[in-house]
Write a structure and sequence with these properties.
Length: 160
């Protein structure tokens, strides 16, 4: 990808907070929505529990797909990313850096972690501490942008 293409995809990722992760496991295909942050290499990071179906699936089969988009009511406004990636847990030594990246995107979570105000916030803080971060290393990213014309797509291959 050129620096301009990376910037275009990065700006798109900056403007959204959730991705839908598609996995394949022993019980068949599955999709889960997770909050994410990304780095300058366009790797995507999310936090989850190993007890969830999507994490069990990706640990058994790390080849996943994901989409990043928003709900719209007309075809001409559709913009989104379709991603083919390899998923992996981050190394324990990466947690602080990935947490910083994540909390930069979600500062309200940082405030909640520092000083939970309610029982619900306390539960979220404990769940965050007990969960792990996972990384999606995109191999292919397709930007679908119907604002440029119906079916307009740009496809990028990443060096992962």
């Amino acid at each position: 990808m050129s620096p301009e293409e990376t910037a275009t995809v990065g700006a798109f990722l900056d403007s959204y907070s959730t991705l839908t992760l598609a996995t394949q496991g022993p019980d068949g295909p599955w999709a889960a929505t997770v909050f994410f942050a990304h780095d300058t290499a366009l790797d995507l990071y999310f936090i989850s529990s190993r007890a969830t179906r999507h994490i069990r699936d990706l640990l058994a089969n790390p080849e996943v797909a994901a989409t990043v988009t928003t709900d719209l009511d007309d075809w001409e406004s559709i913009r989104g990313l379709q991603i083919a990636a390899r998923a992996e847990p981050i190394a324990p030594g990466e947690r602080d850096a990935v947490t910083d990246l994540y909390l930069k995107k979600f500062p309200a979570v940082g405030r909640l972690l520092k000083a939970p105000q309610t029982d619900s916030e306390e539960k979220i803080a404990k769940g965050f501490a007990a969960s792990e971060f996972f990384r999606l290393r995109p191999r292919t990213i397709r930007l679908v942008d119907n604002t440029q014309g119906f079916g307009h797509k740009l496809e990028f291959t990443l060096p992962h």
